[in-house]
Amino acid sequence: MSTSMRLFIGGARGSSVVADPACRIYGGDTTALLLEHPDGGRILIDAGSGLRLVERRLAACPGAGDPAMLMTHYHLDHLLGFPSFSPIYRPGTQLRILGPAGVKSSPASIFGALMSRPFWPLELGELRADLQFEGLNPLANEEPLRINGFVIRWFPLAHPGGCLAYRISLTPDSPAVVIATDYEWDRAPPQAQAAFVTFCRTPAPPALLLMDGHYRQAELAQYRGWGHSSSEQVAAVARAVGAAQFLVTHHAPLADDVVLAARERELQAESPRGAWARQGTVYAVTSAAAGGA
Ligand SMILES: [Zn+2]
Ligand SMILES: [Zn+2]
Fold first, then answer.
1. Counting CB atoms within 10 angstroms of each CB, which of 68, 134, 244, 270 has the fewest?
2. Ligand 1 centre distance from Cα of residue 48 (Å)
3. How much distance in Å is there from the Cα of 182 to the middle of ligand 1?
4. Quick check: 276 and 26 in contact, CB under 8 A?
5. Among residues of the chain, what percentage have pLDDT more than 70?
6. How far away, in angstroms, is 2 Cα from ligand 1 center?
7. How many domains does the chain have?
8. Ligand with the closest atom to the CA of 100
9. DSSP character at residue 219
10. For residue 293, is it within any domain?
């Protein structure tokens, strides 16, 4: 039996859903991830349209208890799967939802606004599940969170409106995954870049880094301030943090399978431990090398 955690990619498309047969391999659903503890605990990360696949996988592995959900931020591509997530309509579901809280907003107020008329026919208070919202202070993370058997730390990323990276492991010093979607590397000052590298490497380099590589390096000048990095930057950051393996995520909506496969081949010529995240794929998070499974 596996003793490592596993990362399931429910969706890795950036910005908007792409329902196109030309995007079957890497997938067209937006960000939704599932971390699976070998003992059965589950953590969902983000609630993009890929939540549909995450829900299917949760249904196939019953008896693991209620998962908790971590939000990186609240841009619509990371939220739009939530209203259709059927566990929230079931009495008996208990779901903890944690995400960054600001001065004027909290996860409760943001989900309350999403689940309200005229955007959706039911209000948050009319749902039959027991939802508990907890705001995280993006800047203060002295003590790691411990949820469903996972040890979780976070770090504020450069992105319009902010975004949190999460570093998650089974014990404080076991192989970790770092989730850093929606990150504009160039917009982070040098001290913040150095602090991110330290965050990833403490106490040891991560087994797996999943990072926003929406653009190509040549496009960055054109999209300064849009909130995303290039796949070349993902490879460089993966080297800097010493990640055993890395996955590029937040795929550009116009990049189909042919385009992404070509970019992946090009990247792997230089960085054989890198790949583009594929929707529907499970990755084992082990220190040796996180392999697709
Ligand atoms: Zn996004
Ligand atoms: Zn975003």
1. 270
2. 9
3. 5
4. yes
5. 96
6. 31
7. 1
8. 2
9. G
10. no
Does residue 162 belong to any structural domain of this protein?
Answer: yes
Ligand 2 centroid to Cα of residue 77, in Å, is: 7
Tokens matching residue 23: 């995007």
Q: How far is the CA of 154 from the centre of ligand 1 (A)?
A: 17
Q: How far is the CA of 225 from the centre of ligand 2 (A)?
A: 11
**Domain extent at residue 263:** 5-285
- CATH code, domain carrying 98: 3.60.15.10
Do the strands 208-212 and 32-36 form a parallel or antiparallel pair, or are they unpaired?
unpaired
136 in helix, strand or coil? strand
pTM of the model as a whole? 0.95
Cα–chain center distance at 247 = 11
Identify the DSSP state of 131: E
The helix (H) or strand (E) run that includes residue 191 is: helix 190-201
Tens digits of per-residue pLDDT, 157-205? 999 999 999 999 999 999 999 999 999 999 999 999 999 999 999 999 9
Ligand nearest to the CA of 78: 1
Distance 30 CA to ligand 1 centre (A): 8
Q: Give the ligand whose atoms come closest to the C-alpha of residue 48.
A: 1
Ligand 1 centroid from CA 236, angstroms: 21
- Decide if 292 is inside a domain: no
Peptide bond into 203 cis (omega under 30): yes
Tell me the ligand closest to 73's alpha carbon: 2
